[in-house]
From TrEMBL:
Residues 1-12 have a biased composition (Gly residues). Keywords: Membrane, Transmembrane, Transmembrane helix. This is General stress protein. The lineage of its organism: Bacteria, Bacillati, Actinomycetota, Actinomycetes, Pseudonocardiales. It comes from the Bacteria. It comes from Amycolatopsis speibonae. Residues 27-100 form the General stress protein 17M-like domain. Residues 1-20 are annotated as: Disordered. Pfam families: YflT. The chain crosses the membrane at residues 75-97, 103-124. InterPro entries: GSP17M-like_dom.
Length: 171
């Protein structure tokens, strides 16, 4: 079966076009992404074919870290500052492309319009939300498995065993 737009089932670089479960055999499991990344770096240093390797986050969790309490003053102030920067940039660009040389009026107009618009949008957004705090969300995994295609999984497992022993060859 061919893809509706041609090109088969894989994009450039051999990656699947659609979300696809990973394939391969597990050659290592790590508590953090940094440890899994270090393991793949180690494999690369040992000239292992890392194109056969995939890092898979298992037991995914959405973690929402609370940054602070929101108030009308904070919401309106943040909206005004964001609008000021945006309006200033737009006004600056309009002022630079003025036929009579640089003009200050577009910059000041953009600044004032940006402050007004962003403050209004921030107020509407805050009044419609039911949250009195700001937060940042992050997708994290309970563990990170390193998978490898079967053709080189055993060699990868042996190299990662060396890494676990402190980088010394096993044996």
């Amino acid at each position: 079966m061919s893809a509706p737009f041609g090109g088969g089932g894989r994009a450039a670089g051999g990656l699947p076009r659609l979300p696809t479960p990973p394939s391969g055999w597990p050659i290592g499991s790590y508590a953090t992404y940094g440890e899994a990344q270090h393991a793949v770096d180690f494999l690369a240093e040992k000239e292992f074919g890392v194109a056969d390797v995939t890092i898979v986050g298992v037991d995914l969790m959405l973690v929402e870290r609370i940054l602070g309490r929101l108030s009308w003053g904070r919401v309106l102030g943040t909206g005004a500052v964001s609008g000021a920067w945006f309006g200033l940039i737009i006004g600056l660009l309009l002022g630079m492309f003025n036929n009579q040389g640089f003009a200050w009026q577009p910059m000041i107009g953009g600044l004032l319009l940006g402050i007004l618009a962003w403050t209004v949008f921030a107020a509407i957004s805050y009044s419609m939300s039911r949250r009195d705090f700001s937060s940042a969300s992050q997708l994290v995994a309970g563990r990170y498995d390193v998978l490898c295609q079967p053709r080189s999984a055993e060699q990868g497992r042996e190299l990662l065993a060396q890494l676990a022993l402190g980088g010394r060859p096993a044996g």
